[in-house]
Amino acid sequence: MRCAVSPSCEEALEILNSRKPNSLLLLMGECMVKFKGRAEAFLGYGERVVMVKRDGSVLVHRDEGCDAVNWQPPGTKTSFFIQDGELVLYAYRLKPPEKMKIRFRKLALAAWARMHDKAALQLIGMEKDYADRLVEHPYIIEEGLRIIKRERKTDSGSIDIYARDKENVPVILEVKRSPPGVAAVYQLEAYVNDFKRKNKEAKVRGILCAPKIPPMVQNMLREKGLEYKAYSCNFELPEDEQRTLFDY
Question: pLDDT tens across 131-158, in order?
Fold first, then answer.
């Protein structure tokens, strides 16, 4: 790792040229950005953070927002030089032909470092997790509910959970992880109608399941003869028992 605070352009260039392969490069300072490819863009001087990742990705970030204001994808080639007293980062790729030139007229930080990160990202609380929990514990919806099938196909798509209640009446469950909108009501209605068309004599229930259901959606469900169930599920990531130096 090498780092310089408030370096001159010459000092920053020396650090960039000493960068080891497969390392992350970080530049912070006042820069402008020109981009030319299938479209053209220009960003005037402003204080920004520029990252060049080990896979060649180049990202230009402002001090707010999570998205880069300009970027180039993995596989981008980069070079560095001084022009008219400014440090220039030149990024380019051939397919499609695109090039980006970043000019720094003042630098606050220049650094590179090799980073090691092999951890897998674990996500919880997705709609599949909620559906899994309901399949494992159907009493969350109502007592006597029996799960018959997951992802049952219909003409309008796949039913999240197909079940039967204690009276053996078919039940279609549409599961959402966040407060549903009008589209979820129409989706559930379409599943119920698909089922009725193929089972004309059968009674069938449709239940929209979510942690919270807005009053407008509740009213719409009642008007269409559908039901709803608000429930809560707490999820926890598995504890990582691997210890690091920071644990001691």
Answer: 888 888 888 888 999 999 888 887 888 8
Do residues 207 and 227 make contact, with C-beta atoms less than 8 angstroms apart?
yes
pTM of the model: 0.58
Domain of residue 139 covers: 127-230
28 and 61 share a domain? yes
Q: In this structure, what CATH number is given to the domain that contains residue 31?
A: 2.70.180.20
Q: How far apart are CA 202 and CA 184, in angstroms?
A: 23
40, two tokens: 């053209």
Q: Which residues of 33-50 are buried (b: 16+ CB within 10 A; e: fewer)?
A: bebeeeeeeebeeeebbb
Residue 62 lies in a domain: yes
The owner of tokens 């896979």 is: 55
CA 44 to chain centre: 29
